[in-house]
Structures
1.
Amino acid sequence: MMADVTEARVPAFARGTRLQRDQVRDQWVIQAPERAFLADPVAAEVLQRVDGETSLGVMIDGLATAFEAPREVIARDVLAMVGDLADRQVLVWKA
Amino acid sequence: MEGVSSSPSPPPMSLLAELTHRCPLQCPYCSNPLALEPKTGELSTEDWFRVLDEAAALGVLQVHFSGGEPMARKDLPDLVRRAVRNGLYTNLITSGVLMDAASLERLSAAGLDHVQLSFQDVDEDGAALIGGMKGAQAKKIEAARLVVADGMPLTLNFVVHRLNVERIPRMFDLAEALGARRVEIAHTQYYGWGLKNRAALLPTRAQLEQSERDVAVARERFGTRMAIDFVTPDYYADEPKPCMGGWGQRFVNITPVGRVLPCHAAETISGVVFPSVREAALGTIWNDSEIFRMFRGTDWMPEPCRSCDRKEIDWGGCRCQALALTGRAEAADPVCRRTAGRAVVDAALRESDKTFAYRSYGCERLSSADTSDGST
Ligand code: SF4
Ligand code: SF4
C-alpha cells in the first residue's frame, strides 16, 4: 500500500475521522472511532493541509516554503506519514 | 478522608452518557447496575445540553451515547447536534433494534460520527437466547446495513462468554460481510449482571486459549483493513487489567438520573455520596468530589499495590471488582496473584453452574444462580 503513495495523490479524512484543535490542552488531536490520538506539531502541520482537494505534491511545496527546509526531506516524511495514516484508515484517497 | 489525593487532576478525555436504562433486550452481562432507573427519573433534554456544554469546556473530546438503549430517547438527535456544536466526537453505542432508515437519517443529519453496534451472537437462536428478544438479529443486521450505506464508520461489538465463544471466527465473517471498519471481541466482565451470572458465562481455559488463537488468525487475515480490539477475561490472568487509565483520570460516566461516576460500576461502593449534575457543575464534581478523589492516583493504595512496580500500569486493577469479590473497594483487585484475595477468583474458575439470571427491572426473574456470586 505504501508503494502507491505518490505526490500526485490527494488525501482526505475518512468519514468519522478529523483533525481537531484541543483548546483545553493546547494541542492538536486526531479524532477517530473510539479514540483520539495526539497529533505532534509536524503531523498537525501536514494534516491541516488535508482538504480532499490538495495533492501531496502541493502540500509538500507549501511545507518546504513555510519551514525553509529541503524539499526532499519534507517529501519523504510526508509520504511516509500519510501512507501510514491511510493504512490505519484515518485518511482515504480522493485521487 | 485519609489517603485522598490532593494532586490536581488532568481533565477527562471521554464521557460515557448513559441516557436511559430502558432497553428492549435483557442481556445477562449488562453493565447497567442491578437496580435500574425508571424513565421518570431521567435527566431532561435541557439537563443533557448543559452537561454536554460543560463536558466540552472541561476538556472532554469524545462523548459515547449509551444506555440501556440510547435510541429509546426521542431527543437523541438533538443531543448529538448539541455535542457536535461543542466540537465533541459523537459515538452511538446501540443494540440497533430500534433503528430504521428514518431514525438513522436524523442522527446522520445531526452529525453523528460513529456507531458501535452490539451483537449477542452470529445467528438468530444464539442471539435470542442471550438478548431475550425474538427477531433482534435481523433488526441488527438491517441496522448495520443502514449505517454502512450512510457511509458512517461502524464497529461491531461482540461480548463473548462460554455459550458463544466458539463462534468468534464466524463473528469476523459477519463483520466483514457487513462492512464493519472495527470489531471488538470482549470477554464478559464480571460485575453487576455479569457477576450474578458468572457461573454460566465464564469460559473454560481451553475456550479462552482458542479465542486468543481465533483473534490472532483474524488479525493476520485482515491486516490494517479492520481494526480489532480484544478484551480478555482477567480471571485467567495473573495480574488485573488496568482500571481504564486510572480512576478519575480519563473517563467520566453520567447515569440516566445525572449521577456522575468515575466508572459505570462505581455505584456499588457504599458510604460515599454520588454527586449529581442536577446539583453541581461537572468540573467541580470531577476535580473536588470525594468519589473522584477517593482512588485517584496512587496515594490511596494499601499494600501490596503501594510498593508494587505495576501500580501506575494497572492502578491496582478494578475497584469495583475488588469490592464485589473481597468486600473492600480499596483492596488490590483479587485477580492479582500478589494478593491473598486471589483465592476467590480461583474458586470461581472451578464453578460450573449453568443457569443464569436475565437482566430485568424487577428481581422476580432472578434464578438461584445469584446465590453463587460470593457477594453476601
Ligand atoms: S474500577 Fe473497574 S469497572 Fe471501574 S473503570 Fe476501573 S476497571 Fe473499569
Ligand atoms: S499488587 Fe496491585 S499494583 Fe501490583 S500487580 Fe497486583 S493489583 Fe497491580
Note: DSSP finds three helices and five strands in chain A.
2.
Amino acid sequence: MTTIQTRAKTGQDNPIAHLSEADIEAIGAELDRIRQSVLDTRGEADAAYIRRVIATQRYLELGSRAVLLGSALPPLWVLGTLGLGVSKILENMEIGHNILHGQWDWMRDPKIHSTTWEWDNATPAAQWKHSHNELHHTYTNVLGKDNDLGYGIMRVDEEQPWHPFFLAQPLWNFVNACFFEYGIAAYDLELGKNLKTPKDKRSAEFKANARKVVAKIRRQATKDYAVHPLVALPFGAFLPTLAANFTANVIRNVWSHSVIMCGHFPEGVETFEKASIEGETRGEWYLRQMLGSANISGSKAMHILTGNLSHQIEHHLFPDLPSNRYAEVAPQVKALFAKYDLNYHDASLPKQVYSAWHKVVRLSLPNGWLATTTAKNLPQQLGLLHKMMTGSRRERRLIEKRLARAASLLEAKARSTDAAPEAA
Amino acid sequence: MTATLEPPVRGSRLRDRAIRVAEAATTPLLPADYLDLFAPLRSGADLRGRIVEIHPETRDAATILIRPGADWAGHVPGQFLRIGIDVDGVRQWRAYSLTHGPRRDGLISITVKAVPDGVVSNHLVHHARPGTLVHLEQAQGEFVLQGDADRLLFVTAGSGITPVIGMLRNLFPSTDEGVLRLERSAGLDVVVVHVAPSRPDSIFIRDLEALAAAGAIRLIARYDDEHGVLDVDDLASIVPDLAGRRTLACGPAGLLDALAAHHERAGLDLVVEQFRTTRVEAGEGGTVTFADGRTLEADGASPILDVAEEGGVLMPSGCRMGICMGCVIPMTDGAVRDLRNGEVTTAIPGETGAVKVQTCINAAAGPCTFDH
Ligand SMILES: Cc1cc2nc3c(=O)[nH]c(=O)nc-3n(C[C@H](O)[C@H](O)[C@H](O)COP(=O)(O)OP(=O)(O)OC[C@H]3O[C@@H](n4cnc5c(N)ncnc54)[C@H](O)[C@@H]3O)c2cc1C
Ligand code: FES
C-alpha cells in the first residue's frame, strides 16, 4: 500500500477521489450525530457493564491463581494458565485500554478513572496514555508520526526504502508479539531514539520515565515470578506456577499484539503523509480514521476479548465512547461507508491476522519481489535477492526498478484477465 | 522497658510485612480491590453503606435506612453525612442530615425531600432500591446541642426539620409505650416553630405532634395555606420568651437571613444550618488549569467544581454548597470569586503560596491554576 497522497499523484485509484469537500463535512456531521446519540443514552446500564466485567476479571484471576496452587498436576496447570491468560487479556483490553482512554471517566468513580487506573502491563499507564492517546490516536497511520506503525523498527510501507536489514522483520515481529508489553514500554519511552543519544545528552524526562518503567517491570515481575510461585511452593508448585504465569503473559502478549496488528496493518488499510494532516478539518480527521482502521468480525466473546478493538473503526472514530456501545453504532457507521462508497474493512480474525502477517513478510522483501516469485523462478529470484543484499546501492536500485516494473506488468495482466469474463 | 515495648512493635512489623507481601501479590491493584468483591462494608474498607429500607414520609419525601460500614464512627444528633450515590451511572455526592440518635441496630437514616429537577433527591426518594451500595463519609457538622442551655427554640422550615428531628428523637425516644422521658432531657424546655407550605407537605409532622401531645415539646406549626407566610418579626409575639432561649434554625436561605437580621437587632445568638446557599451576580469568568495540563474555559457563574466535572476532571466534592469543605483543592496561581458574596480570593506564586479553594462555590475570576 502506498500513501493515499502518492497514489493520487501517480494516478493510481484513490479511494477518496470521488468525495467533494461538502461530502467530507457531511460525513463528519453524521458521525458527530452518531456520537451524540450514544452520549445522550449513556447511563446506568453502561456503568453496570464495566463493573460486571471488572468483577468477572477479578474473580477469574483469583480462581485461576487458586487453581495454579495445584499446578503440579498437569490438567490444573492447563486450566489455571488458560484462566489467568484470559483474565490478563480482559484486564489489558476491555478494561485497561478502555479505561485509560477515558471511556468511563463520565461515571466520576475514582476507582474506574483514566487518571487513577494502573494496569497489569510493563508500561506505566501514564506513559502509555501519552504515546497511545495523544500520538497514535491523533496521528493515526501517518508515516513517521504514528509509532504504532511498525514501532519505528519495521518497514510498513512500499515508500520506505528497502534495506537487507528488513529481511529479519518477520522474526522481530514474532519476538515483539511474545514480549509485546516490553515492546510497548520501550516504544512509549522512545527507547530506540534515546539509546542513540549519548548518555549525558538524554533528557531528564527520559531518565525519570525510564526509572518508572524499571520500577513497574520490577513490581510486575515480582508478582508473577516470585510472590505467586512462592505462595505455591508449599503445594510443590513453585516452578509450574512460574511457568504458568510466564505462559499467561505470553498468551496475553501474543493476543494483544495480534489484535493491534489487525487494527491498522491488514492489506488495504490506508497510510497518510505528514503534510496531509496539516490544517485537517474535523471531517477530514474522521475520514482518515475511517480509512486507516480495520475491523474484526466474530462472536460477542471475541469482541470482548479484543477489548472491542475488533470495532477498531468505531474505536478510532469515537475513542472515548464506552466500548460496549461500539457494536451498536457499527451498523450506522457501516451504512455511512456504503453511502459514500468507501471500503469498510471487516474480516474474521484468522483472515486479518494472515493479511497483516502477509504484509509484514511482503514488505520485508524488496517491492515486487513476492508478487513476481513463483515456484518455478524461485532460484533466479533468490539470486536477485542475494545480489541486492551484497551488491552496491546502485545495483540494488536497478534491481528494485526491474522488480517493480515486472510486478506492475503482472498486475496489469491480472486486471485485463479479470475484466475479460465481464466483457464476454 | 524495651521488653514491654517489643511485642507490639514486632507485631506491627509482622503486619506491615504481611501487608507488603499482599500488595506485591495484587499489584497494580491493592488487596482491598479484591476484598471489596466479598466484603465492601468490612473494617478497613473505604466507608460505604448499604440501603436497607426506604419508606415514604410524604408524597415527595422518604426516609432511607442505611447499614453503614464497620468503620462508621457514630454521630451527634443534628450532624449530617456526605453520601455518594450513582445516579444514571454517575457518582453524585450530597449532604443529608441524620434524622435520629444513635440506634441499637447500628443503622443510620436520612430523610430526603425531592426538590424540583433535583438529581439526587429525586433518585433517593423515587428510584433508589434497598440493597444499593452507597459511599459515605463520617458525620460532621456543628449544628448540635451544646448541653449548656435548657431553654431551646427550634425554627425549622420544610426539609429543615431533618437535623432537628434527629435531636428531638434522641432527647425524647418514642416507643410503643409512648414518648420516653429520659434523665438527659428532664430539665429541657423546648419550643419548635415549624413552617411548611401545608400540613400534608410536612415531613415528620406526626412525630412532632406526638411529642407535643406527650408534653415533651411545645409545637407551633405554621402552614402557609392556613396561616399565611411567616413574618419573622412576628416571632416575638409567637414565642414571647424568645430572649431567654437559644435559637437553632434550619431552612431556606431567605428565612435564615431574615432570622439572622432579626436576632442581630435583638442582640440574640443564633445557630443555623443551611442546605442551600444564595448566590450573588456573577462576574467575568476565566480559564481553569489543572496539574495534568488540562485547561478549561469557565464562565463567571459556574462553580469550578461543575466546570471541572464537565471537563472530565475527577474532583472531590460533598455538599456542593460551601459547607462541608469536601471540595477543597489548592490554587497555586490566579483568582476565584465566591458565588455567595462576590469575595475574590487570589493566589500569587511566591507570595501567598497555594491557597485552598472551595470549588463548589467559587467561580473563575480570570485564569487560575490548580495543583490537582
Ligand atoms: C448540611 C446539609 C444538610 C442537608 N440535609 C438535608 C436533609 O436532611 N434532607 C434533604 O432533603 N436535603 C438536605 N440537604 C440538601 C441536599 O444536600 C441536596 O442539596 C438536595 O437534596 C438537592 O439535591 P439534588 O441533587 O436533588 O438537586 P440538584 O440536582 O443539585 O439541584 C437541582 C435544582 O434544585 C435546586 N436546589 C438544590 N437544593 C435545593 C434545596 N435544598 N431546596 C430547593 N431547591 C434546591 C438547585 O438550585 C437546582 O436548581 C442538606 C444540605 C446540606 C448542605
Ligand atoms: S462540596 Fe461541600 S464545601 Fe464544596
Note: The interface with chain B takes residues 42-48, 55, 58-59, 62, 102, 105-111, 113, 115-116, 118-120, 219-220, 222-223, 226-228, 231 of chain A (CB under 8 Å).
